[in-house]
Structure formats: structure tokens, C-alpha cells
Write a structure and sequence with these properties.
mainly alpha; 2 strands; two-stranded antiparallel ribbon; about 180 residues
Length: about 180
């Protein structure tokens, strides 16, 4: 039995379905926009600075939604992402790395994790789970004492993309309910 696609996969598919309805000339304008902004290192940058994982994630999602994450742009992006595997990234950037890698795997048949230590996935999952706090949520980083709703969301998405589940999900529900305001 095949599992249902996760949140980000469903969102990407819905957006791709909508974009597919655009006239070809309009889709070509958007494709050109993304391809012209991909840096020589394979990544994407914000308005200034060097390529980073966050903006690369947006660029690759844009190309994926347009059906254009393939060939040389995909190979270049894989090179950029592989260069980021040894760095210490924030959860936000790490989500971009994991999701971008999944897009490349599914759409371009490129596995940036090929040849990496076999326990890498387990180590990453363990590092995410170490951010769990007593209230059931997840902190922004190892030094964080308080859980964050946003970072709990990001950890859950990363764990899903890594093929893992959150232990004791009812604790997350309790955490989220505790964050509700009366209004």
C-alpha cells in the first residue's frame, strides 16, 4: 500500500496543476526568470549575497512547478546541494536542503545522498529529535529552551521527508493547543 504524499508534495502538485493551465508563452517567461537567476554554483540567492539553501529551495520549487527541473539546471543544483551537506545549517535551511534533494530525486533522478554514510539519515533524525522539549514541541536549536510552533512544523516536515515519524504525536497536539490564544 502506497502512502499518501506529504504536505509539501501535495502543495507542489496542486501548484504545478495550476501552472500547467497557463499559456505556454507565460510559462516560458517564468522558466526563463528562474533559469537566469540560477548562479554558476548551481544555487540561488536572495536580492544580495551568495547562493543559499533557503533561496535555492524556492528556485528549485519554481522550476519543479514549471516542469523544468531537469538536465543541466538540475545537475548544477545537485552540485550546490552536495556542497552544503557538511555544513551546520539552521532548521529552515536544512528543510530547504532536504526538500530540494527530494525534488531532484523525484524529478531528475539525482540522489545527492548517494555514497553518504549509511547512518547519515539516522543521525539527522536523531539530531531533530534532540530538539524536542518537555512541552512536546521542538526548539529552534540545541541551545533553545522553549519550543517554537514554526520550528515544530519544520521538524515534522523534515522528519516526513526523511521517512520518519514523530514519536508521541499527541504531545505535539497538546503543545499546539497550549499555544492557542482566546481570539
Amino acid at each position: 500500500m502506497q502512502s499518501e504524499p506529504g504536505y509539501l508534495a501535495q502543495l507542489t502538485m496542486r501548484m504545478a496543476a495550476g501552472v500547467s493551465l497557463l499559456p505556454d508563452p507565460q510559462r516560458e517567461i517564468h522558466t526563463k526568470f528562474f533559469l537566469e537567476r540560477q548562479r554558476p554554483d548551481g544555487g540561488f540567492a536572495g536580492r544580495e549575497g551568495e547562493s543559499d539553501l533557503y533561496y535555492t529551495g524556492f528556485g528549485l520549487r519554481g522550476l519543479a512547478i514549471l516542469g523544468e527541473l531537469k538536465d543541466q539546471p538540475a545537475e548544477n543544483a545537485a552540485g550546490f546541494l552536495k556542497g552544503k551537506l557538511t555544513g551546520k545549517e539552521s532548521i529552515v535551511d536544512f528543510l530547504s536542503l532536504i526538500y530540494s534533494a527530494e525534488l531532484l530525486r523525484v524529478l531528475a533522478d539525482i540522489d545527492i545522498f548517494e555514497g553518504i554514510e549509511s547512518d547519515w539519515r539516522s543521525a539527522v533524525i536523531d539530531s531533530f529529535l534532540s530538539l524536542r522539549r518537555d512541552d512536546g514541541g521542538f526548539a529552534k536549536g540545541a541551545e533553545g529552551h522553549a519550543s517554537s510552533t514554526y520550528h515544530t512544523f519544520l521538524v515534522m516536515i523534515c522528519l516526513e521527508l526523511l521517512g520518519s515519524t514523530v514519536p508521541d504525536p499527541e504531545k505535539i497536539v497538546s503543545f499546539l493547543k497550549a499555544q492557542q490564544a482566546e481570539d
